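Thread amino acids onto this structure.
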């Protein structure tokens, strides 16, 4: 088993994640994936925007960049163009990546930039006050939807497949072994890799919707073998707002994998340019 302390900035501890937050489990799985591939820390760059998930880059002893809200894919694109030898990984959340940063995300996918994007989906804005996010299920309570969310939510993987991502996967934070395996597959894929990690937010989503603490949310998540939307939709406390329950068994694992030219920005090198 990996001694993750070899990859951490211990001087940056203790972390600021809330009790029960699964983002720490996600970070552990990612470090296991890095260790399995024996990636030199000086050849791995992690880029993040703003949010709970983006805090993770501050704790790792790699090349890191903490950018502006939603712009991590754009920063990562520039970095990959300038330093193509680097392994470039974006860490983002469902609000950071699918709201203010959605435009940057889908165009990085369309171009097939050779980067890996880890999108930690906890179905709510966790850092800024528990507001409804693009992934908040219909009927869910948030600080901005006290009567229940009336809007439909994104399926992040379907969105990225439609945008042209050549590798798309979904994993559960409750299954760290599978999460590490899929991360290795994504990081070794030649092209744009998108991995949605279904995580939890016990402090906001769990409390607002009566789901329970971190352990409760992860146990319930693992037992259902579906994404976060289905189980949470059954726990509605706002009867006048109809639930939007997706088909049971939201797909997990590797959903899309194809080989196509990788964007390098340079003509005549075997990959498409502008």
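Threaded sequence (274 positions):
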């Amino acid at each position: 088993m990996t001694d993750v302390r070899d990859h951490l900035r211990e001087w940056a501890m203790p972390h600021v994640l809330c009790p029960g937050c699964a983002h720490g489990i996600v970070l552990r799985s990612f470090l296991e994936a890095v260790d399995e591939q024996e990636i030199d820390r000086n050849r791995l760059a992690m880029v993040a925007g703003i949010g709970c998930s983006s805090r993770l880059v501050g704790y790792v002893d790699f090349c890191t960049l903490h950018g502006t809200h939603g712009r991590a894919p754009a920063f990562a694109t520039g970095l990959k163009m300038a330093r193509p030898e680097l392994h470039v990984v974006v860490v983002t959340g469902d609000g950071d990546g699918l709201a203010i940063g959605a435009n940057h995300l889908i165009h990085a996918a369309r171009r097939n930039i050779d980067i890996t994007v880890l999108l930690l989906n906890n179905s709510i804005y966790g850092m800024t006050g528990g507001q409804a996010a693009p992934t908040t299920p219909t009927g869910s309570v948030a600080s901005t939807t006290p009567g229940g969310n009336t809007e439909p939510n994104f399926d992040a993987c379907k969105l990225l497949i439609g945008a042209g991502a050549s590798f798309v996967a979904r994993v559960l934070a409750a299954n760290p072994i599978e999460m590490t395996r899929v991360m290795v597959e994504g990081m070794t894929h030649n092209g744009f890799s998108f991995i949605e990690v279904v995580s939890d937010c016990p402090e906001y989503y769990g409390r607002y919707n009566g789901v329970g603490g971190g352990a409760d949310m992860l146990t319930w998540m693992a037992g259902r073998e579906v994404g976060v939307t289905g189980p949470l939709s059954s726990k509605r406390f706002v009867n006048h707002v109809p639930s939007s329950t997706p088909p049971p068994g939201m797909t997990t694992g590797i959903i899309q994998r194809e080989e196509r030219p990788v964007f390098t920005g340079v003509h005549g090198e075997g990959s498409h340019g502008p």
